[in-house]
Write a structure and sequence with these properties.
By secondary structure, the protein is an alpha/beta fold. 48% of the residues lie in helices and 16% in strands. The protein has a 10-stranded mixed β-sheet with strand order 10-19-18-17-16-15-14-11-12-13, sandwiched between helices. Helix 2 crosses helix 3, helix 19 crosses helix 21 and helix 20 packs across helix 21. The longest helix has 20 residues. The mean pLDDT is 96.
């Protein structure tokens, strides 16, 4: 599923009309029919239609016609100058007026009083006041209408976007309709990804209105929701001739005094995700504990000559879990950058070291420019240290911040959190799986192991990151159906089952 902002959506509409010759009224009728499909499921007979005079209002008036024809009653309230409305709005206005629908124009306190009286009788309200083009604060009569609807409405259906929301950022511009359901057209809106949008958009349903794929590809943004089909398309199939050599060698590097669990979790995740061979590498002191914890994974001392051979033979490396931020860890990371040729996932303290050592980060950029692949998996706090931006800024601009940083540094970036962002700076994916039951220490280590495992099994860096985030979150969602809270070992235990379920759908 594609995700787009206001500019792209406007260009898509324009291209349909100007390049393909599809009349806007055809697209509007398609939208109205899809709206009606969902509106007719709402209990009750009386709908109040709140419409502006743009195309969003035109959609609302077309829906009012379909509701009336189906035997429902639609009371129409319009705000704005009808004579200055969009062409499609005026055409739909003429139709509903000719049908004899009850239409009132809200201009003053008297109009607001009438609206309130009808809202109190209504079974549901349709919000078609302001569409995706809003770029300034909602004021005046529009603000009063929105506040009135929010105060007395039993159920609100929003057309395309709740009135008052910025399509690109999800910010509330003065005030915003609090919808129970939003039927949005063709693409999920970028603003819906923001953390605070949920209380306004309600349930979101994306409906196609007949826009051809070539127009979407030409004018749409390269931002997508990950879907199960993407995982099935990329995960390597297991046939009867496969053996452990078919599924790669994974190397997990991490751990320090007092932080023995992190590399264990990452190594176990790689094992359970299907790597042929997994080795956990750490200092001698850490290995004394780690060897007692690991069963299927092998171990290696980072000070031994064998470690360099492992760096050269691995198909995927995960570095950082619990490794500490001291000088020895920085030197180890430098060695990995200079020696390993396979893709490297860098998490946790690996990222903190890079944030604190600009020279090492510059070295990584050079390696990336030479064709080496690095995957960063920061949470917002680590991202703040890497970029110098505040956590609040990052949370409010997740897509842009992640894509910008990935492009500047030539890496894949996986920014954890609500709606995890995975991007190479050109194409971005939003991961829809996972929930707050997974909010516990070690989850990031688990994700590192999964991605490193998928790299070893032959997936590309972007594909491994996208699939890894989806599988990780899917396992959490399934477990949370019966468990109140989860730990990383729960996810690891369930990984083979999660993969089987996803690949069998």
């Amino acid at each position: 599923m594609r995700i787009s902002g206001a500019k792209a959506l406007k260009n898509i509409d324009r291209a349909c009309v100007e390049e393909l010759g599809i009349p806007m009224m055809v697209l509007m009728e398609n939208a109205a029919l899809k709206l009606f499909r969902h509106a007719e499921k709402i209990p009750g007979k009386y709908f109040v239609i709140a419409a502006g005079t743009g195309n969003n209002g035109g959609d609302a008036l077309a829906l009012a016609r379909h509701l009336t024809v189906s035997g429902r009653r639609a009371g129409v309230f319009i705000t704005g100058d009808v004579d200055r409305g969009s062409q499609c709005f005026k055409e739909n206005y003429s139709i509903v007026r000719n049908m004899g629908l009850d239409i009132k124009i809200i201009k003053d306190a008297e109009g607001l009083r009438e609206l309130k009286e009808e809202l109190l009788k209504a079974d549901a309200v349709v919000d078609g006041i302001i569409g995706t083009g809003l770029n300034k604060e909602v004021k005046g009569i529009h603000r009063e209408i929105i506040q009135l609807i929010n105060g007395v409405t039993p159920f609100t259906l929003c057309i395309d976007i709740p009135s008052g929301m910025d399509c690109d950022t999800g910010r509330v511009l003065g005030c915003c309709i609090r919808g129970n359901m939003t039927v949005t057209f063709q693409h999920y809106k970028k603003g819906f990804l923001s953390c605070g949008s949920g209380e306004y958009i309600g349930e979101v349903i994306v409906e196609s209105i007949g826009i051809p794929e070539n127009i979407e590809n030409k004018y749409g943004e390269n931002i997508f929701f990950t879907e199960g089909g993407y995982i099935r398309q990329n995960i390597k199939k297991r046939d009867k001739y496969s053996h452990k050599g078919s599924f790669g060698r994974t190397l997990i590097i991490g751990g320090s005094e007092g932080f023995y669990g992190a590399p264990e979790i990452a190594s176990e995740a790689a094992v359970r995700c299907g790597s042929g061979l997994v080795t956990a590498a750490a200092s001698k002191a850490v290995l004394e504990i780690l060897r007692l914890k690991l069963k299927e994974a092998m171990t290696a001392d980072t000070a031994d000559e064998r470690f360099e051979a492992l760096l050269g033979n691995a198909g995927g490396i995960g570095v950082g879990p619990g490794m500490g931020k001291g000088r020895e860890s920085a030197e180890l990371l430098k060695k990995i950058l200079n020696t390993a040729w396979c893709p490297v996932v860098i998490d946790a303290d690996g990222l903190n070291i890079l944030a604190a050592e600009p020279e090492l980060m510059e070295e990584l950029r050079k390696r990336a420019a030479e064709g080496r692949h690095f995957i960063f998996t920061p949470h917002p706090g680590e991202m703040a240290r890497l970029t110098g931006k505040t956590i609040d800024y990052i949370n409010e601009n997740r897509l842009e911040t992640a894509a910008e940083y990935a492009a500047e540094n030539g890496i894949i970036l996986l920014l954890k959190g609500f709606n995890t962002v995975i991007t190479d700076g050109r194409t971005s994916y939003i991961n829809p799986t996972g929930n707050s039951a997974m909010a516990s220490g070690g989850m990031g280590d688990c994700l590192t192991g999964i991605i490193a495992s998928l790299l070893s099994q032959g997936l590309g860096p972007l594909e491994s990151s996208v699939c890894g985030a989806y599988i990780h979150g899917y396992a959490g969602e399934r477990l949370s159906e019966k468990m109140h809270s989860l730990c990383a070992s729960d996810i690891n235990e369930y990984l083979p089952y999660a993969l089987k379920e996803i690949l069998s759908l």
